Amino acid sequence: MSAIHLALSMSFVMGATGLVFNRTHLLSALLCLEAMMLSLYLLLAVWSLQTDSANFSAAPMFLLAFSACEASTGLALMVALTRTHGCDHVKNFNLLRC
């Protein structure tokens, strides 16, 4: 495994551990998800460059588009939950209560 692959894999793992251990605010969880998506995008881009295959050259762009959609949906949910509950603490969100 090359140094680039190791660094990008470790960035994905650090984003996942940040998501697991730091769940006090919704914004920090969304930032960890974005870090994971960015490392996946970079891993896919490096992999498609190394294999020189034309079949997977558009895959990083699709992943980047889905990542942007995920980020906008997450921020919209965070704004809606902050307006209804008053803060973005994850422990205060109870979806069973209307």
UniProtKB/TrEMBL annotation:
Q: Which GO terms describe its biological process?
A: ATP synthesis coupled electron transport
Q: Which branch of life, at top level?
A: Eukaryota
Using the record, list the residue span of the signal peptide; answer none if the entry has no such feature: none
Pfam family of the protein (one): Oxidored_q2
Instruction: Give the subcellular location.
Output: Mitochondrion inner membrane; Mitochondrion membrane
| InterPro entries linked to this entry | NADH_UbQ_OxRdtase_chain4L/K, NUOK/Mnh_C1-like
Catalytic activity, EC: 7.1.1.2
| Membrane topology per record | Multi-pass membrane protein
GO MF term set: NADH dehydrogenase (ubiquinone) activity; oxidoreductase activity, acting on NAD(P)H
Which transformation does this protein catalyse, written as a reaction?
Answer: a ubiquinone + NADH + 5 H(+)(in) = a ubiquinol + NAD(+) + 4 H(+)(out)
For this UniProt record, give its keywords in alphabetical order, as a comma-separated list: Electron transport, Membrane, Mitochondrion, Mitochondrion inner membrane, NAD, Respiratory chain, Translocase, Transmembrane, Transmembrane helix, Transport, Ubiquinone
* Residue ranges of the TM segments: 25-49, 61-81
Q: Under the cellular component aspect of Gene Ontology, which terms does the record hold?
A: mitochondrial inner membrane; NADH dehydrogenase complex; respiratory chain complex; transmembrane transporter complex
Name the protein family.
Belongs to the complex I subunit 4L family.
What's its job?
Answer: Core subunit of the mitochondrial membrane respiratory chain NADH dehydrogenase (Complex I) which catalyzes electron transfer from NADH through the respiratory chain, using ubiquinone as an electron acceptor. Part of the enzyme membrane arm which is embedded in the lipid bilayer and involved in proton translocation.
Supply the name of the protein: NADH-ubiquinone oxidoreductase chain 4L
Give the gene symbol.
Answer: ND4L
